[in-house]
Write a sequence for this structure.
């Protein structure tokens, strides 16, 4: 995962960006065009990146969608993350 430089955004935005980096690693997505990804990783396209960051920002702000509406929840459950997602 590439090092991220935080630009002094609000605390919620910084936390959402860090959460995005964690999710990208869990989902084997590369966030950098020049980053040499390990085998099996794929680049994060624009849609994935914007949708994922939006999901992260909502979560950090306490406005996370319900599990039926939230694509990241399904991924977390698929990999065995056992948190309560209601």
């Amino acid at each position: 995962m590439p090092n991220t430089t935080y630009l002094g955004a609000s605390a919620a935005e910084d936390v959402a960006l860090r959460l995005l980096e964690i999710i990208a690693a869990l989902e084997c997505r590369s966030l950098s065009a020049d980053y040499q990804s390990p085998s099996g990783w794929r680049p994060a396209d624009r849609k994935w990146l914007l949708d994922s960051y939006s999901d992260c920002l909502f979560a950090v702000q306490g406005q996370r969608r319900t599990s039926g509406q939230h694509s990241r929840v399904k991924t977390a459950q698929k990999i065995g993350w056992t948190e309560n997602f209601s």
Q: What stands out?
A: The helical segments are 11-26, 46-60, 71-78. The first helix runs from residue 11 to 26. The longest strand covers residues 29-30. The mean pLDDT is 77.
